[in-house]
Amino acid sequence: MGQLLRIIALFLVCFSGAALADDAPQTPPDPARVAAARDLLEVTGVTKQMDGMVDAMSRGFAKGANADNSEAGKKLSDQFDTSMKKLLEYKDQMITDFANLYAETFTAEEMKAVADFYRSGAGAKFISKTPELMKKGAEIGMKYSAKIADEMKASQTPPLPADQK
Predict the structure, then answer these.
(1) C-alpha angle 22/89/134, rounded to 5°?
(2) Secondary-structure percent of the chain, ordered helix, strand, coil, rounded to 5
(3) CA–CA gap between residue 129 and residue 123 (Å, rounded)
(4) 93 CB neighbour count, 10 Å cutoff
(5) Which of 82, 87, 63 is nearest to 15 (CA)?
(6) Cα gap 99→146, rounded to integer Å
(7) What is the rounded CA–CA span in Å between residue 137 and residue 134?
(8) What is the phi/psi pair of residue 85, to 5°?
(9) For the chain, N or C: smaller number of CB within 10 Å?
(10) What does pTM read for this prediction?
């Protein structure tokens, strides 16, 4: 279940900006900036990443809930999958919020320069390798999270009475 919590935390961190954007009073962003932001989001593969992240979260949840070995786990996993499908219904709105956020943060020229880089050989390679790097990076993070959890468990073990040492 720890892996599931890490996946959910990652998802919330990655997508919390879109949710927060709705709370602030907004003036319409410059259409040229929004267009540049949408292009940048497209070239960097944000939409595909959202789909992949939801899929990974569903698999992680199923594993954490022990969906293969219990009826209760299967039911929880199904409920989670339903929630993730519901989240994806908002994907277009989320992309719009991301584009607006980028448009508020960067000029159209800056986003065009970044998009041009990602279309170049080195940038395209970076984009193509990012999912693999993220997966391996998550594995590194989980390895050290497990070490910390083991250390925490070990430190919580009650000491042996003096006559048993």
Answers:
(1) 85
(2) 80, 0, 20
(3) 10
(4) 11
(5) 87
(6) 36
(7) 5
(8) -65, -40
(9) C
(10) 0.60
Query: Whose structure tokens read 């569903």?
Result: 58
Backbone angles phi, psi at 66, to 5 degrees: 60, 45
Q: Cβ(54)–Cβ(86) under 8 Å?
A: no
CA 82 to chain CA centroid, nearest Å? 18
Alpha-carbon gap, residue 86 to 27, rounded angstroms = 28
Which residues 6+ apart lie within 8 Å of 112 measured at CB?
36, 39
Torsion of CA 162, 152, 63, 81, to 10 degrees: 130
Is residue 50 within 8 A of residue 88, CB to CB? The reply is: yes
Question: Within 10 Å of residue 16's Cβ, how many Cβ atoms?
Answer: 10
Query: What is the full per-residue pLDDT of the chain (165 aa) written as tens digits?
Result: 444 444 555 455 555 444 444 555 568 889 999 999 999 999 998 877 777 777 777 777 777 766 667 787 778 778 888 888 888 888 889 899 999 999 999 999 999 999 999 999 999 999 999 888 888 888 888 888 888 888 888 888 666 666 665
- What are the C-alpha distances in Å from 23 to residues 1, 19, 26, 101? 32, 8, 9, 13
Residues in the chain: 165
